[in-house]
Amino acid sequence: MTTRVSWLVLLAATAFPRIASADLQVSGTFQYEKRPMKNLTRTGLRCWKALEIRPIRFAQVQVINTATNTVLFDGGTDANGHFIGVISDVPGPTADIVVRCFTHVRAGQFGSQVFNVTDASNVEYSVPSSLYSGWNVQQPLDIGTVTAHGITLPSGHMDHPFNSLDNLVWMLSYFESQSGYHPFDPLRVVWPTNNVSNLYVPNDHTVYLNVFRGGDNDGVQFHEMGHYLHISYAAGISGSWVGIHDLMDSNQDPRLSFMEGVATLFTGLIRDFRGDFDPGYYVVCNPTATGASEMGYRFEDGYGVYPVGGAGSEAAVTCALWDMSDTFVSPDGNSVDDDPVDGSFLFQGLLTGEQLMWNALLQVFPTLPPTGQVFESLWNACFVPIDWDHQPELSGAFDAWQMPMHNDSAEPDNSAATGTPLSFGVWSPVHTLYYAIGAPGAPGNGDSDFFRFSPTVGLSNSITTSYPNNDCYSVFTDVDPYVIVKDPLGAIVGQTDSGGSCGNSGNGEPDRNAGVTFVPVTAGTYTVEVKSASPYRRTGAYQILWH
Ligand SMILES: [Ca+2]
Ligand SMILES: [Ca+2]
Ligand SMILES: [Ca+2]
Ligand SMILES: [Ca+2]
Asked: 529 CA distance to ligand 4 centroid (A)?
């Protein structure tokens, strides 16, 4: 080893004088204009802050001889937007030189994949230095500071493509900080497109930003890049449930709500990683020069979309996972947290809540079937292969968003013998479909709840489930109750997935509750079993009525 090092030093020492005399050093700084967003939640208010100047970080830089159209140097900027290129043996005595910085993450910064921003024709954006005609190649060339300005389309919509590049850099930096390894999938960001919405296409490894709300909107850009993180590294996701979604809808397919809620969460987590003040919010600004806010909300308290709740609400998924991740030191202007996972303790393995979530995403999710995960999948993944501890705090944080991940007080009631008595005409207390045997109360593995009652022979009797408080407009629970009624001899007298108390009017969407009507012919104790009719709606709250 010693000999080898000495040999390298010797080589460098003897080679140095020859290179120095013929090298051309080119240096400079690239920066870009950024339009920061305001944290607004109300529609119609001006949404953009004044332009700021930021360095173009970790971007590809080329020194080009324009006379011969040859690339003399191919490198990149550093964290401050600076670059230095040393070019050997430049044909002289003069050259026509331009230096160009591209919306392309410099080679090797995040492993070997390509990360770039292009237009719809797959052409990268770039910003050139001045042209240095007839430059004496014996002299160092300092191009000074070059600024990339924004682009305004004829429609008035704007973007700063180097801002999109910087968002890419932040996203990838955040991913590496959590995963400990380089990304293994590339990502291209395309702006502008005429798609009706922004989208991430997994097979293309491409984020498509539309002209309406894609430009400059860090929130939507990080949301779509969040899909890249989730789908590339945590789960293969496909199904007819993937599609258009609505922030304000508490009654979406819970698989869609989970996927979208996780993506929006990343807008807050990446901003937090970036050091933004009050990072936990989502806002969309109209990308025109005078753009107003279109929508937005705050993850800490749901302000802007509140009330939201349940695993069928993507906003609730975001808020719940935000509470799992934020702490009293989160930079939101106060030194408290409003949920039990507040940074005052660490999970097993000295993991923060955020790290535990990433552990679930990166270590557990890839082992699950690629049929779409729901919030319960994330919850359960926080308790394998070991109990990472602090189940009560996590459960408490999720309760606030109407996602009850714990046994109800009637458990265990998973058999006819342990069923809870029903009183005629009186709604039961709220029960949950969730069951875990013993400590720590997780992971849950599906639930059956039994009830008992003694109807009068010959009279019509009904068993009906409802959302909590018999509120047809409360879809804070995504559970899909299935009811089975049996007579004293164990024969089924009715079973159904439909016919709940709200008919089909609940929140304009089909009621998932169940109701059975029958006339008893055998005297004695009847039983009702309530369980979930759906493999992806296994948890949630309900009440039951004998009438
Ligand atoms: Ca928290
Ligand atoms: Ca919180
Ligand atoms: Ca239960
Ligand atoms: Ca049960």
From this structure: 9
